[in-house]
Amino acid sequence: MADFDYDLFVIGGGSGGVRAARVAAAHGARVALAEEHKVGGTCVIRGCVPKKLLVYGAHFAEDLADARRFGWDVPQCAFDWPTLRDNVLAEVERLNQAYTTTLNSNNVEIVLERATVAGPHAVRLAGGREVSARIILIATGAWPVVPDVPGAEHGITSNEVFHLENLPRRVLIAGGGYIANEFAGIFHQLGSDVTLVNRTDVILRGYDESVRDRLLQISMTKGIRFQFNSRFERIEKSGDGLRVSFDSCEPLEVDLVLFAIGRAPHTKGLGLEEAGVSLDAKGAVVVDDDSRSSVDSIYAVGDVTNRVQLTPVAIREGQAFADTVFGNKPWRVDYHCIPSAVFSHPPLAGVGLTESQARQKYGAVRVYSSDFRPMKNVLANRGERALYKMVCEAETDRILGLHMIGPDAPEILQAAAVAVKAGLDKKAFDDTVALHPSMAEELVLLR
Ligand code: NDP
Fold first, then answer.
1. Is residue 303 part of an annotated ligand binding site?
2. How far is the CA of 183 from the centre of ligand 1 (A)?
């Protein structure tokens, strides 16, 4: 067997890459991992984690207002963006250190340089060094897409949003997906004037229609503006702000444009095609069920493969890869029934088929739902209603999908997703005594 510098060289220190490196090393492999920015990747450094902390921070706006209805004498409160921003960034720094420590303690060599593929077993580092590895793992994630319009350079993406110097007064968010709706909620709660602009009239494509409609209705009631079927024409500097022109409606004057129109696999300039690795039309590494690319010695996990762009999926892919290739314990990721959530205000979550997907696949379905005003909202004089919806196979009542919007929906759905994944039916929920008083009890009282 050829003598390589490493058994495994991982390119990319995000969720998938770090898990694969750590587990492969624990299985006895000699492992190096290259990261050009910070160990932790998108989720930890400029994604899920700092976003969730901002969501918590933003939610205080409502909590402080509601507290008065619960008898608290809350004086006029002011929000200070630099305090929240810096505390969040300090936590990100702590996690970056924690990830680094984990890799070090598992004897993974960390190379803080950009690395590219120089051949089926060769990796070139930005500093000029070339190393060899029996297996190369591509875990470079995805990168925010910026539209090709004049003046796009005046906008920012989720990469920069955590570092803003000031809280913008008027924010335009491009896109209608996860990031757009999450940041619409954050900025609105923190006091900005928010307009969400999308090229179609759909938000959160892929989520259940009733739940999406509820978020749209609640967001509009809160004062977030939606401008649909609009395409950007140009973005120009205008005084202290920006003037954004569209194909179909009047221009908008704003202080910040945030692009949230999807994330593309991060493969450009990595040397993959030159090494014989097949990429698809979107630039994603094409892999088989074991995450192996068209080159036997090169694998890929996480967003760079564009299978499911979610952190827990990338982590599982990294674990399965390391166990299979280095641990002599082969297994494959099961992509069926993956729960997901949007941390909007209020949040929503879902698992399994939406009602329309279920109807398309099974014809007849039964839908059970509960449309209710959470107890806390009633006392707080808050009109927002929660919606829980269970989609079942008509004949057997087997649960095909579960969808919810309302306070703590992601926390509640995670537990209920176990039942959906296990193939339980509606009766299993009916047979379970309600835990009263809670919002989650609505799940066992659906009609
Ligand atoms: P999404 O894929 O969620 O949404 C993209 C949005 O941009 C859609 O509304 C889409 O419109 C629109 N769009 C797509 N392409 C273009 C284009 N070329 N020009 C203009 N608009 C366009 O992307 P995000 O950027 O919000 O998030 C990226 C990914 O990151 C998500 O898919 C998700 O997997 C992950 N993520 C997960 C989170 C979570 O788990 N809570 C949080 C944040 C991100 P339309 O649908 O109308 O075509």
1. yes
2. 12
Q: What is the CATH number of the domain that holds 54?
A: 3.50.50.60
In one-letter notation, the amino acid at residue 89 is L
Edge-to-edge strand list for the sheet holding 193-197: 225-227, 193-197, 170-174, 256-259
Residues 172-187: tens digit of each pLDDT: 999 999 999 999 999 9
> Is there a single domain that holds both residue 285 and residue 255?
no
Which residues form ligand 1's pocket by a CB distance below 6 Å? 147, 175-180, 182, 198-200, 202, 205, 260-263, 309-310, 340-343
pLDDT value at residue 1: 53
Three-state helix/strand/coil letters over 372-409: ECCHHHHHCCCCCCEEEEEEEECCCCEEEEEEEECCCH
Considering the domain architecture, whether residues 159 and 70 belong to the same structural domain is answered as no
pTM here?
0.97
Question: Is pLDDT larger for residue 288 or for residue 1?
Answer: 288
In a domain, 46, yes or no: yes
For the chain, what is the domain count?
Answer: 3
Is 388 annotated as ligand-binding? no
Residue 203 DSSP code = S
Q: Are residues 365 and 220 in the same domain?
A: no
Quote the ligand 1 centre to 145 CA distance (angstroms): 9
Judge whether 59 counts as a catalytic residue: no
In tens, the pLDDT along 346-359 reads 999 999 999 999 99
Question: Does residue 166 fall inside a structural domain?
Answer: yes
- Assigned domain for 331 exists: no
Mutate to test the pocket of ligand 1, among 45, 145, 178 (most ligand atoms within 8 A of CB): 178
What are residue 440's phi and psi, to 5 degrees?
A: -60, -25
